[in-house]
């Protein structure tokens, strides 16, 4: 399946911009330096890439499947590829981007391990944010016999798009099993404030910055992979 690339550069020149970033995206942006090349998977309305382009002079692409969100990206001036990340990211070359981002979307991926391995192949570093299923309110809800709901997980059990839920410890073990090295991590409460004490129980959202461990990672790039010019 070929991907459709929607170019939003002209709209950015016309001055289209957005409001303040979501708290987890603020932390993601804090880790990304000036002039960096970024790939944002499941980029939504392109808020992160728009901010990075305007404030940090960054370049890159968003990848998004939803028609309305793709339109929102182009309105903001964000270059977006309409593609399902589950169907493969082999259009991108090895280490083509400094950062590959997946924010608050890993829970909805079916082939989670494949997606994270691809992030490690495409980027020098990767950043993932997700709701912490180990938050004490979630544990309490389960103890009362109810599936948890929160600001980070605002769905009922019957209409949730989430397929995979993880605690902070689960995710750290997952990264290590894939041969990834954790570079940094940040934890936020439901108001977007930093949590430093007992984050495994008190943090609503976890954000991890990681990269492939050179000693454990293998070069899985196939010959003849066609990379998008950035």
Summarize the model shown:
The protein has 230 residues and is of the alpha/beta class. Helix content is 29%, strand content 22%. It is built from eight helices and eight strands.
Structural write-up:
The protein is an alpha/beta fold. It has one domain: Rossmann fold (3-Layer(aba) Sandwich), CATH 3.40.50.150. It is built from 8 helices and 8 strands, in the order βααβαβαββαβααβαβ. An 8-stranded mixed sheet has the order 1-4-3-2-5-6-8-7, with helices on both faces. Strand 5, helix 5 and strand 6 form a beta-alpha-beta unit. The longest helix is centred in the middle third of the chain and has 11 residues. It is globular. The two termini are 21 Å apart.
Number of domains: 1
User: How helical, in percent, are the residues?
Assistant: 25-40%
End-to-end separation? 21 Å
Give unreliable regions as ranges: 9-16, 220-228
The number of helical segments is 8
User: What fraction strand?
Assistant: 15-25%
Question: What general outline do the C-alpha atoms trace?
Answer: globular
- Secondary-structure element order, N to C: EHHEHEHEEHEHHEHE
| Rg result | 17 Å
């Amino acid at each position: 399946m070929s991907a459709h690339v929607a170019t939003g550069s002209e709209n950015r020149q016309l001055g289209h911009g957005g409001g303040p970033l979501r708290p987890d995206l603020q932390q993601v942006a804090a880790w990304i330096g000036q002039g960096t090349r970024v790939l944002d998977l499941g980029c939504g309305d392109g808020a992160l890439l728009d901010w990075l382009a305007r404030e940090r002079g960054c370049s890159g692409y968003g990848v998004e499947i939803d028609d309305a969100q793709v339109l929102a990206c182009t309105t903001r001036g964000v270059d977006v590829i309409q593609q399902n990340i589950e169907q493969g990211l082999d259009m991108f070359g090895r280490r083509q981007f400094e950062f590959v981002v997946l924010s608050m979307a890993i829970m909805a991926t079916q082939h989670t391990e494949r997606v994270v391995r691809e992030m490690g192949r495409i980027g020098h570093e990767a950043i993932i944010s997700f709701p912490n299923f180990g938050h004490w309110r979630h544990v309490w809800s389960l103890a009362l016999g109810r599936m948890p709901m929160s600001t980070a997980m605002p769905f009922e059990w019957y209409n949730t798009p989430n397929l995979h839920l993880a605690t902070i410890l689960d995710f750290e073990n997952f990264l290590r099993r894939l041969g990834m090295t954790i570079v940094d991590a940040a934890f936020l409460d439901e108001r977007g404030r930093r949590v430093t004490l007992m984050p495994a129980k008190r943090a609503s959202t976890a954000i991890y910055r990681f990269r492939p461990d050179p000693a454990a990672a293998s070069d899985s790039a196939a010959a003849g992979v066609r990379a998008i010019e950035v």
